[in-house]
Amino acid sequence: MVPILMWKIGDLRIEGRVVLGPMSGITCRSYREFMKPFGVAVSVTEMTSDNGIIHGLQRSMTYVKFEHNYPTGLQLFGNDPDNLAKAAKNAILYNKNIDFFDINMGCPVSKVVNNGSGSALMDNPSKCGDIVRRIKETVNIPVTAKIRLGSNKNINFRQVIDELTDADVDAITIHARTREELYTGNPHFELVEDLQSDMSIPLIISGNVYSLNDAVRAVDITGASAVMVARGAVGNPYLITQIDHYYRTKETLSTPIISQQVNWCLSLADALIQEKGEELAINMLRGIAPKFIAGCRGCREYRHKLAVETIDLKNLTRLLYEIESEIGSEHIRT
């Protein structure tokens, strides 16, 4: 067996090469716990407002609350170093299970950018460093940052990395697109070729990882210590297993069959309902459940049914068992 790569976020020992990326409205506590057994080495929470934590808003504090079952970072967003540091301090007082803070410097969504947060922070590289420095002066746990390439007019990720490194950041995730590209088009991994060799801290590479080949290509080009998987694993949790297994053994696992996907979807439904109650969980599952049967022959109609007819757990279960009965032996395609 090929030994897996061991790496660290500060003093935090990480065993495995797959990081579960933050996704607003998806990577809640129960989703992260559901994904862990598939081979997630470390995960990051949904993006959490610094002001929300400072003022103790219920939604923000929901993101902060989780138990310690494997390395988990709380992702913060904001634009003021002092505010972010205060939020980090308050979060630690509320939950001592936080393993590290991840600072969002890459979100391209307008309402975040227009507030001077997310990827807008990259317009001021020295401020990016100030944020990390201020947080590290305030709390005694690792701090990471998630960035992009920059903007279309200013590809400045190297300057931002230099500022973050000078501030003693513990790891950097880079999504290989510009702010304006949002989540469309192919990531520009060629622009970050061999980037890890130029860095003294771990690089986590992100962008369009929907298959094992995508993950291997991203890591091979950049030399990254780990790969972040986010949207590509929604409805396809076994992708995490395929990537994790490959880096442990160099073996390639086949894709799962629909009957396995059905069982996993029901397990996720149970977990979400326990955390959020049936109504909120079902609202989430209308978007997630159809992805569990994506990539199989003749399942377009079933995906539509799951999206529009999932009104409660009973209906979701009926639809999934109907799908399993019809096409349960089909393999999903990536």
Can you tell me about this structure?
The strands form 2 sheets. This protein has an 8-stranded parallel β-barrel with strand order 3-4-6-7-8-9-10-11, surrounded by 5 helices. A two-stranded antiparallel ribbon has the order 1-2. The chain has 2 domains: 244 residues, TIM Barrel (Alpha-Beta Barrel), CATH 3.20.20.70; 70 residues, Non-ribosomal Peptide Synthetase Peptidyl Carrier Protein, Chain A, CATH 1.10.1200. The chain starts with 5 loop residues before the first strand and ends in a 7-residue tail after the last helix. The chain is of the alpha/beta class and 334 residues long.
Number of strands: 11
Whole-number radius of gyration? 20 Å
Shape: globular
Structural class: alpha/beta
The neighbouring-strand order within the major sheet is 3-4-6-7-8-9-10-11
